[in-house]
């Protein structure tokens, strides 16, 4: 395991100085939280490890952010209580304390955290083996999601073609939707207040909307021509969602519409989004009535046989003419109906020839403010889109290595305080368990941090906002916990590099001709001469000790 690329935090006195010079409480909090999420590092203890589990999907409960749902490749659904990790915790034991010469890390697995609940979601479909026995098929759990209104309900999707709604209190299925195709993802809308629909994407290229109230799939959105791998509900409009497919398309939908009108935009990596056109569900070619192979191979009757048949039918000519007129009228009516349906936009599918990626799109995520959409594809690109217009923002993120996974992969988008400075994306990078953090709106696309804390590829990332913690799950069975690095009250002694890093972090320089206090403003320069250094300094004189104003007020208040 590669040593982490270390990112140091500013000193504690820098925060005290910022607060003492009048920085507002909210701005101060946002600045501290932003710096913490920029300095997340994996812990070496108090993480979750289950050797036989390949984690495919994870989700935190939206109410308390305490319970973590985990779906695995072997059809297991696990529930972990993160409070047990919080109570155990060695909060400052992070991998950033490892020496830079260390290349491997032996994790502490002596105290494994057991799940609160575990259930195997077995498929009801059976198959016959070569020996004639019938065995139950098992498929991986592709997505889990909590119901945002009630933390006691969650939904799961699987390759067994089912979407299941679970009672979280007893871990039992309360309703089930058979979609007759592989289900790659199923999600609730986080901001929905007028509906409780579950959106599911399938291998048939359909977006299915399932209603828990009537336990039925009520609506389908057509337009994708290949498997749909990823799904994300808008965080700005409860009726809009985005999907990404195997052929590189990313589409934005309005679930209140139908047919070709449901697809609002098709994203284009070359710039402006495209409003999709309309294609008929039915073909324009006249279809003959179905017939059997034997009837098609039968030779036509002979001339004599036809004369006999004609003579036999002359008696019923008037009756046959009436029937033929009725049949022609019925065919004319059916043709008009089909032509009307072809011209009806609500009975047609949308079609477009633009792509957002040159490979399959296996990850979609909105920024927390809902203004932008991030997409990651198998073409090793991470792209940023305007969620209102669908326009490509042309942001370049260097070093993206998207795993070639033919299913949904979760990346985490974090926003603390100001949107421009604090919006970060944590992206699973490659097959070696690497995680990279990027500034979504940064001027440069270089990664802020790059860690390798897993032995195999990372498949899911979730952010615990109340604690500023990140959890990543991988196919090595590890669910890693990431915390901010330790806060130092003052820089380390005897390390010139540390002082330069601290000064660079605050935009100050350290040199012989210009000596500044770390964290001080531009005008606060300590002017001194060589003659002052020769004077005898009394260490017991409190006037020679720098005390920040906020601490000075605290001391005066105590006296």
Automatic annotation (TrEMBL):
InterPro entries per record: Rad28/ERCC8/Ckn1/ATCSA-1, WD40/YVTN_repeat-like_dom_sf, WD40_PAC1, WD40_repeat_CS, WD40_repeat_dom_sf, WD40_rpt
KW Signal (keyword) present: no
Bias kind Acidic residues: ranges: 524-542
GO BP, one annotated term: transcription-coupled nucleotide-excision repair
WD repeat ranges, renumbered to this chain: 141-167, 221-263, 354-395
Region (Disordered): 289-345, 524-547
Domain of life, per lineage: Eukaryota
Keywords for the protein's UniProt record, in alphabetical order: DNA damage, DNA repair, Repeat, WD repeat
Listed Basic and acidic residues bias regions: 320-332
Cellular component, GO, one term: nucleotide-excision repair complex
Protein name per the record: Anaphase-promoting complex subunit 4 WD40 domain-containing protein
Species, as recorded: Globisporangium ultimum (strain ATCC 200006 / CBS 805.95 / DAOM BR144)
